[in-house]
Amino acid sequence: MRTYWLILLSSCVWAATIEDARKALTDAAHSKEGDERRETALALSLVPAKDPAAALLEDMLKDKDYLVRVAALDTLGELNDKNRVGLLKSALSDDVPEVAFAAAKALYTMKDPAGLEALESVYEGEIKAKSGFFKKEMMNSWRRLKTPRSAFLFAVQRGVGFVPVPGIGAGYNALLGMLSDAEFSARAVSLLMVCGEKGKVCDKLLASSFADEDWTVRAAAVHIVATKQLVAMKPKLAELISDKKQKVRLRAAAAYLRMESSRPMRPPARRPALKG
Fold this sequence. Notes:
By secondary structure, this protein is mainly alpha-helical. The chain has 15 helices and no strands.
């Protein structure tokens, strides 16, 4: 009998703790402080998508602080809840380009076609008329879009282009250096993301990236070629060793050496046997 009461008591305590946890998140989600609401959105990436607390993210998509909206979208993408795809698509038309870009990233993570289309539009610098998720008047805003601070973590999460090569670093530090640069553009991040997997869109964007006016796009292209071991594009790396931008030149030089060191060694030529 005593055991029964202990189990019952434990169940009550456990239930109370769950409610306390949800209340803590709910109270913080409605805080007057934007930083606290943003931290709540980030913390919610730890809860199951089906937990009632996850519903707080839906209200956060309407938050007056755009950083809260960005954090909520990042978390929704991580939760990978297909039932909330409609919310992400609606956020693509947000007046703040950083929010729309976060929605595009989340949709891409969830393998929704709208995400790939949006990233392609960001890279090409225009909003395609065939897309119903964008407003034409947003075009200039998207062109001014800067990389969110979450770009590096997102890139690592997606495993952007990392191919293990014995005796060679993964290139994380080089990537971190690029993504933490204040000039690093959303177009460059879009290229990294789209080329995280093989596909026609990646091939098309990568083909023109080496001569792009944006140095961060050229640097991203170098990183993709090096870490994915795209041997056919090795001549492109050689050209960029003399790039006008130092950050591109150095990465191209290092990338070229990386590909050289991983190239299979040719067996030595056999000498013709001497006749006796």
